[in-house]
Task: inverse folding
């Protein structure tokens, strides 16, 4: 086999090519899984690229092998062969509900947002959620001009030629709006999937793992003739850009799409509330096995499109829709060991190591155990869970997977517990650095007190620093960080070290990066270039990248939007003092007051940021890093023509014509900043009935105070 791995593709006989293809395909599939599903890459990006290149070379010479190749699967990076296209309107995903309570909450939340009484009519549509691949079809003047996969929601792959071969997708429409983007799911029926896999096996090609992979692999073929030969189908369920509305309701719009010639799911119905939605869910679940195609839940949407428009979107999901997923897949296996992982904030996370077991088509060998209370059979309030049964090494445990979440333990079989099984004793010493592991009052998590001196925390912080939503440095992922962290000649132990890497490499006469295993002239130069490109970084990304506890992407964006520049942010965090003016009311100095007044920034997040900036070692690391960066200030999106753009607005009291959340979302959409409390910087206080101290404080400070009607008149109703 070693010889085959060395053999040039041009010299391979067909059976040698098949054997080498199998080896490479398995390695790529494993790497895809570890990178995309387990978020724990096992090989370097360079090794991964080399495997894929060789696989593609074999497939180019022996095309029969290309069918079912992991190079064609979704979840891998966008295939090079497809042009990328920007969606005019982003393709979002759906929030998930896993229980009936969450469906009731969905209805309650919407009513609260819209200020609807509990008994006001609020119909929803319910439709099966097809387990396939989302696709957006653009029609101009009734002609199909573009088909794009969801991709990352902003940019998808242009698969127009392939989509045009799908019988359910009309090429031309009569009587359609001038611009019409139809969104839906490409899928494969069970019967077509079985027949395709039989053909794959006959041709000596690898069968597809499931209908979803088969649909995705078939649509994302570089050769449209292959897609044409695959039995793909399409259900339309939504729309993007439109030159005119399709209807006044969701169901009306779906009917209009049906009239235009699209396949829409026949099980789409109207329900008058959560009880009817749940009844429909149960009915669809009962039919699931006989539908003839895979579904993984039921999608509920507010039927009235005017209400959908008012509800609008969160960052990645609409407020007016939810996917009620079917119950997780379950399997029993044995708990072999409990490992403790130390995260970037020092949290000690117990992980169950399991005898591998297949759950819903995926081999599971790890499951989360959350924290020490969970293992002991208690929830965070000290109440018994699993009827108080604890989890012990050697136990038989029931594993479940729901959606893409990390596998969890659903139950324990006490009748199979080994006689010598002992209660698990949770470590009070960090297994990575030996520092004391402490639990703050009210915190269910035990944390290592070693800070950046704990290698596990330091390396996890660095991994977070280079992660996609932070610095996202090409060629410097978790795997490379791990290697550089332990490197003695060219180490990266703190974020600033990343930006001195090229300089240190140039200064070192021996052991250049380009000469290391896994690196070459090109990859080393590319890495240094990729690092240089990130010296310019938007403020929100930098704040997120610092890895401060409680500061996620949203918190970082709120802080960045408020302070605008690194200099202002850094100065404010340095000055903020929550304890200033002991006994004074309100507590803390003006900088602290200003920080906690940011809407969405609570005292916990605020205290965490301020503590980081005041902790000497952490502060030194932040300053060393900032010295290498050109931090881009936040460019405020000022809505043109808006009378409230750039103004700081506070809402108080009861709002009668809209909810607080809606008021905030609308004000922000018009370029205003919404604060949680009144200060000298406040421009407008919108005061409803029952406004208390905020109204009197605003009056003292000379802030303009208006009522809800005046506010609506100001922003145009
Ligand atoms: O109706 C839908 C079905 C499936 C959807 C949907 C979906 O995603 C797989 N996604 C969105 C964003 C919407 N409707 C609006």
Result:
């Amino acid at each position: 086999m070693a010889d085959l791995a060395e053999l040039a593709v041009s010299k391979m006989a067909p059976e040698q090519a098949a054997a080498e293809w199998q080896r490479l395909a398995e390695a790529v599939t494993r790497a895809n899984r570890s990178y995309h599903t387990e978020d724990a890459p096992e090989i370097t990006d360079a090794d991964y690229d080399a495997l894929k290149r060789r696989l593609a070379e074999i497939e180019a010479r022996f095309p029969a092998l290309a069918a079912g190749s992991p190079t064609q699967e979704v979840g891998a990076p966008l295939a090079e062969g497809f042009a990328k296209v920007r969606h005019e309107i982003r393709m979002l995903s759906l929030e998930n509900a896993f229980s009936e309570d969450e469906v009731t909450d969905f209805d309650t939340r919407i009513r609260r947002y819209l200020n609807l009484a509990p008994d006001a009519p609020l119909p929803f549509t319910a439709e099966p959620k097809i387990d396939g691949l989302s696709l957006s079809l653009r029609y101009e003047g009734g002609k199909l001009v573009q088909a794009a996969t969801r991709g990352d929601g902003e940019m998808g792959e242009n698969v127009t030629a392939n989509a045009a071969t799908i019988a359910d997708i009309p090429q031309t429409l009569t009587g359609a709006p001038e611009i019409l983007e139809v969104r839906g799911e490409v899928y494969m029926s069970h019967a077509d999937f079985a027949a395709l896999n039989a053909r794959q096996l006959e041709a000596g090609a690898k069968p597809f793992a499931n209908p979803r992979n088969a649909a995705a692999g078939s649509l994302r073929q570089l050769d449209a003739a292959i897609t044409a030969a695959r039995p793909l189908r399409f259900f339309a369920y939504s729309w993007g850009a439109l030159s005119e509305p399709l209807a006044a309701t969701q169901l009306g719009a779906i009917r209009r799409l049906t009239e235009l010639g699209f396949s829409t799911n026949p099980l789409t119905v109207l329900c008058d509330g959560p009880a009817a939605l749940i009844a429909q869910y149960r009915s669809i679940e009962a039919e699931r096995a006989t539908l003839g195609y895979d579904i993984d839940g039921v999608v509920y949407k507010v039927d009235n499109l005017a209400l959908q428009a008012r509800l609008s979107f969160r960052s990645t999901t609409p407020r007016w829709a939810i996917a009620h997923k079917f119950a997780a897949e379950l399997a029993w296996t044995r708990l072999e060991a409990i490992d403790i992982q130390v995260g970037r904030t020092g949290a000690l996370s117990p992980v169950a190591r399991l005898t591998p077991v297949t759950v819903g088509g995926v081999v599971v060998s790890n499951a989360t155990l959350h924290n020490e209370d969970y293992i002991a059979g208690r929830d965070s309030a000290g109440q018994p869970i699993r009827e108080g049964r604890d989890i012990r090494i050697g136990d038989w445990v029931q594993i479940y997977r729901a959606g893409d979440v990390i596998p969890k333990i659903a139950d324990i079989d006490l009748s199979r517990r080994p006689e010598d099984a002992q209660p698990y004793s949770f470590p009070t010493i960090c297994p990575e650095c030996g520092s004391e592991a402490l639990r703050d009052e009210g915190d269910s998590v035990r944390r290592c007190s070693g800070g950046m001196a704990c290698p596990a925390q330091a390396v996890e912080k660095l991994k977070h620093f280079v992660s996609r939503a932070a610095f996202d440095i090409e060629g410097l992922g978790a795997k490379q960080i791990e290697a550089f962290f332990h490197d003695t000649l060219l180490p990266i132990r703190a974020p600033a070290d990343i930006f001195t890497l090229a300089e240190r490499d140039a200064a070192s006469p021996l052991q250049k990066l380009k000469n290391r295993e896994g690196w070459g002239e090109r990859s080393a130069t590319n890495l240094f270039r990729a690092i240089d490109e990130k010296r310019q970084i938007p403020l929100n990304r930098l704040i997120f990248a610092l890895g401060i506890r409680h500061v996620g992407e949203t918190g970082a964006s709120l802080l960045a939007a408020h302070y605008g520049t690194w200099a202002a942010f850094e100065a404010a965090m340095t000055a903020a003092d929550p304890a200033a003016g002991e006994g004074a009311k309100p507590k803390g100095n003006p900088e602290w007051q200003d920080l906690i007044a940011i809407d969405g920034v609570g005292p916990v997040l605020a205290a965490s940021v301020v503590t980081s900036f005041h902790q000497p070692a952490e502060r030194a690391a932040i300053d060393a890093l900032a010295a290498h960066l050109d931090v881009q200030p936040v460019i405020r999106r000022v809505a043109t023509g808006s009378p409230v753009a750039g103004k700081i607005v506070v809402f108080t009291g009861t709002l009668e014509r809209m909810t607080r959340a809606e008021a905030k979302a609308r004000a922000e959409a018009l370029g205003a900043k919404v604060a949680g409390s009144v200060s000298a910087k406040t421009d407008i206080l919108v005061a409803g009935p029952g406004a208390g101290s905020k109204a009197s404080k605003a009056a003292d400070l000379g802030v303009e105070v208006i009522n809800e009607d005046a506010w609506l008149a100001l922003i145009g109703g």
